[in-house]
Amino acid sequence: MADRAALLIAVETFFEAGPIVPYAAADCAELMRALPAAGYAPARCTLLAAHRTTKAVIEATLKRLPKLIGDAQSLLVLVASRGFSAKGKGYIACADTIVPDPLETALPVADLLAAVSKVKAKEIAVLFDIDPLALAEHKSLLPGLDADELAALFDASPKCVGLTACDDGERSFETAAQRHGIWRMHLLEAFTGKARGGVSKDGTLTAAALHTFLADAVPRTLRRAYDAPHDQTPTLYGEANGAATVADLGKLIGSGNDLLDTTRMKRVVFRADAPGQVRDLSGYRKSHTIPDRPNDWARKYVNRVAAGDIKADLDNTFDMVREEFGYKRKDLDVSAERDGVGFIRTPDFEYTVSVEVSTDDPAEVVWRRELGRLSGPDFVRSESFRNVFGARFNKLVFEFASAVDVAEFVDRIEDAPPEGVKVSVASDSGAAVIALAGFAGRVSVTRDAVTIEGQTGNPSSLLEQFLAFVRKFGALGEPKALAGGG
Questions:
Q1: Does residue 53 carry a pLDDT above 70?
Q2: Residues 209/199, Cβ–Cβ less than 8 Å
Q3: CA gap 86, 71 in Å, rounded
Q4: 357 in a domain, yes or no?
Q5: Which residues, listed in sequence order, are joined to residue 143 by a DSSP beta bridge?
Q6: Cβ-Cβ contacts under 8 Å for 329 (sequence gap 6 or more)
Q7: Position 8 in a domain
Q8: How much helix, strand and coil, in percent to the nearest 5, is found in the chain?
Q9: Whether residues 366 and 222 fall in one domain
Q10: Quick one: 233 and 281 in the same domain?
Q11: DSSP assignment of 388-406
């Protein structure tokens, strides 16, 4: 039986205090619908939006919260609104917060945390997506919550962990193209199993792992969504309680999958590297000077003249992906970034294409194409996958979350060699090459990765070889640390 409870508060519009919080209500409603599949009891989940976001309603709900969630073992609280601070204390604006008296008509952060701490739940995760509220009429009030107060409140709590969408002095951005708040969009990805970052082998997602995923995903999306540079830094408070589980995603993503063992891997990608000439790039002109050394100028030049080629690659792949997989437009996120990288993100994978100046010969470039964030082996084995990507990749790379001891790995094989296996090792024990009977490709193990290399044209054979490798040798690498993993 699901024993998780949630309180979602979406203050999107205000009577007079400030502008709307774009997409707050829709994002919270979407999360509300996703929670049952993530281990939450529907009867113990409450959403406050629209006319139910006045201070009186919010405070009444907080007062009744112990009764609303009963004996649930964990509580998730998400508040999307605007906020300000005064004399080191933060306030969350409610729908009826008024400009003449904001302190009396807004909800103090300390009061909210005190209220949620009264529930019986042993683990409480409080998520704040609070945009700064500037009140010109009150010079003593500062936009945004007070970071020092948040740190003190969560550090003093025996069971509360806090995640904020942005750091002190920053705002939380939205993307009109995706019609989401950026931080909330990635939060939804995490709770619906569309993003695997931080999810353990058994399908659980902790608050600390969720924060690590958001801290990586939000800045990348922000760079794509806005031409001008902006900062938005998701922040974790109460790290001592970061092990609190916020979602059970085992039923959504499956568990026990060796390929997607995110407790040990940094990432799994199909990869292909191909050489090229600078003069063959679409942006090259005869009047240009071809680089003679691989310096910053050469890298920037190659990024600029390769922009058209990257876009053409993405356009071609986009068309094939739409046709073969039947994705809707809103399922695809496409970006041709200006730093020599472009990508297509879908619910099942992320395709990346990049170009770099060759370090061996600056007149040449190296094209790298990668396919990562894979939804699972069945997707890789599908006919549509072969139709789109079958001729593109000749490597499958499993990058470890932390370095492995190659010497110990080789010793383990040589002490009890599996049938049909031969191993060679470098003199410094930094790398090993494994030969498996019946496979003509190459399996190499370094401190950072296992690489399966074969012939271009059959990615699924690389997958099968990798799974055979894991079955013979067991899990490799050490589990990720609680926080700070990539």
A1: yes
A2: yes
A3: 36
A4: yes
A5: 84
A6: none
A7: yes
A8: 35, 25, 40
A9: no
A10: no
A11: HHTTT--EEEEEESS---H
Whose tokens are 């409140």? That residue is 153
Question: What is the bridge-based pairing of β-strands 364-372 and 449-453?
Answer: unpaired
Q: Where are the beta strands (DSSP E) in 228-289?
A: 235-237, 245-248, 265-277
Listed residue (310, 251, 319) closest to 37, CA to CA:
251
Q: Give the residue numbers spanning the domain of 216.
A: 4-253
Model confidence band, residue 466 (pLDDT cutoffs 50, 70, 90)? low
Domain presence at residue 479: no
- Say if residues 206 and 74 touch (Cβ distance below 8 Å): no
Q: Maximum CA pair distance of the chain?
A: 80
Which of 115-124, 137-146, 201-210, 372-381 bottoms out in mean pLDDT, i.e. has the lowest? Answer: 372-381
Residue with tokens 């490799």: 476
486 band by pLDDT with thresholds 50, 70 and 90: very low
Share of the chain above pLDDT 70, in %: 88
Q: Report the 10 Å Cβ neighbour count for 138.
A: 15
Q: What DSSP state is assigned to residue 81? A: E
Tell me how many domains the chain contains. 2
pLDDT, average across residues 152-159: 97
Here the CATH number for the domain that contains residue 209 is 3.40.50.1460
